[in-house]
Design goal:
By secondary structure, this protein is α/β, with parallel strands linked by helices. The chain is built from nine helices and ten strands. The chain has one domain: Vaccinia Virus protein VP39 (Rossmann fold). Helices cover about 40% and strands about 20% of the residues. The strands form two sheets. The protein has an eight-stranded mixed beta sheet with strand order 5-4-3-6-7-9-8-10, sandwiched between helices. Strands 1-2 form a two-stranded antiparallel ribbon. Bound molecules: S-adenosylmethionine (SAM). The site of S-adenosylmethionine (SAM) has 20 residues, from α5 and β4.
Length: about 250
């Protein structure tokens, strides 16, 4: 009900995203190749023994799932993958951080957008990370580093290694408390050049609470609700405004 069309947007920066960046998102060759690759993985019925450290199974229980099931249920749908690709292509960060590699699908949308840059993607399940490595290599990407371990351990280590966070995509452990914890850590290394993208911002009441706190945070400026993805800017040249955009 509160969504803006392009005419309701009063930020030149957001005009640019709505007029130029998002409408082009299906036209890039790379995303079409990723879509074909995904179709191939949907026919892969081999099993992976999953260790889930995320929301809903914090005890790290193990279970078997097929590649095709994970691709169907957990990997970014193509339409949203193209949004990630378009944003990364537009921002041209040297480094992208991803929380939640899964089988590497969103990582392909991100890494193909920055051929001269590097994606560092974090995954808690070793077997899943191993499969993701195979997928990324089979697709021919050599700018992707996958680090295995709980975000609580891997993210602080990574943040110590880099001067600031340019572009981060948060797509794992969708609880209110964990999302706000990752936000605080990333925020401490953010500046005017930073873009954070949160996935599944309306997935649960807890995720909605986390998203609302991020919008209200005194350091965030422009925030954009794309209904599944939430974009968070810290650029002090942008006024503190919030928009809901229906793509
Ligand atoms: C929704 S999936 C990511 C999907 C992927 N971004 C894509 O679109 O292709 C979330 C992933 O985060 C991982 N994960 C969840 N909680 C974690 C934690 N606390 N530490 C490390 N990995 C975690 C899960 O193992 C799972 O593979």
């Amino acid at each position: 009900m509160k969504a803006h069309g392009r005419a309701g947007v009063h930020s030149p920066f957001l005009y640019h995203l709505c007029d130029n960046v998002f409408p082009q998102r299906f036209k890039h060759e790379e995303v079409n190749a990723i879509q074909k690759f995904r179709q191939k993985l949907l026919t892969d019925h081999s099993s992976i023994d999953i260790t889930d450290l995320g929301a809903g199974s914090k005890r790290g229980k193990s279970n078997l799932r097929t590649v095709s099931e994970i691709i169907k249920n957990a990997s970014k749908p193509h339409a949203w993958g193209t949004v990630l690709h378009a944003l990364a292509r537009e921002r041209k960060p040297e480094t992208i951080i991803e929380l939640g590699t899964s089988l590497g699908i969103s990582g392909l949308y991100l890494s193909t957008a920055i051929p001269g840059g590097k994606l560092i993607t974090l995954e808690g399940c070793p077997n899943t990370a191993q499969k993701a490595r195979q997928h990324v290599d089979a697709f021919g990407m050599n700018n992707v580093e996958i680090r295995t371990g709980n975000f609580d351990n891997t993210l602080p280590v990574l943040l110590k290694e880099i001067p600031f966070v340019e572009f981060a995509y948060i797509d794992g452990n969708h609880t209110e408390e964990a999302t706000l914890r990752y936000f605080e850590w990333l925020k401490a290394k953010s500046d005017s050049r930073t873009l954070l993208i949160f996935d599944d911002i309306h997935w649960s009441p807890g995720m909605k609470n986390a998203w609302n706190q991020i919008i209200r945070d005194s350091k965030t400026t422009l925030t954009v609700d794309l209904f599944r993805l939430g974009l968070v800017f810290f650029d002090t040249r942008l006024s503190k405004q919030h928009f809901n955009i229906l793509l």
